[in-house]
Specification:
three-stranded mixed sheet, 15% helix, Immunoglobulin-like, binds copper (II) ion
């Protein structure tokens, strides 16, 4: 029963993705480093500005010696990037606004913002 629900949910997500493919949307690529300076962790980009409906490919490089998180609650993104590795976070924002980008592992880790324009 649970499995059937999961399959149904996946089908709905797929349908939404296809519906969002209209128009002349493009792929936007960004590269963000997770850094640590004098013990203060942060991101190399403070504000990322993107366009609603574009596919966003964010390459997140963790250049530090410990694992860091990469979260954007608004787009249901919650990643952990291991030391000296990179991950590509791909999503297509469907809403405009300003959203917080933060590390869910360290409360003191300086957050960044993502601004989605229409
Ligand atoms: Cu962190």
């Amino acid at each position: 029963m649970k499995r059937a629900l999961a399959v149904a949910a996946a089908a709905v997500v797929g349908a939404i993705a296809i519906a969002g493919c209209g128009g002349n949307h493009k792929t936007e690529t960004f590269r963000v480093n997770i850094t640590s300076t004098s013990g203060v962790s942060g991101f190399s980009i403070g504000t990322i500005t993107v366009t609603q409906g574009d596919k966003i490919d964010l390459r997140v490089d963790n250049t530090t010696e410990k694992a860091h998180g990469f979260s954007i609650d608004a787009f249901n993104i919650h990643r952990v990037v291991e030391p000296n590795t990179a991950q590509t976070v791909s999503f297509t924002p469907k809403k405009t606004g300003e959203f917080k980008v933060y590390c869910q592992l360290h409360p003191a880790h300086v957050p960044a913002n993502i601004i989605v324009i229409g």
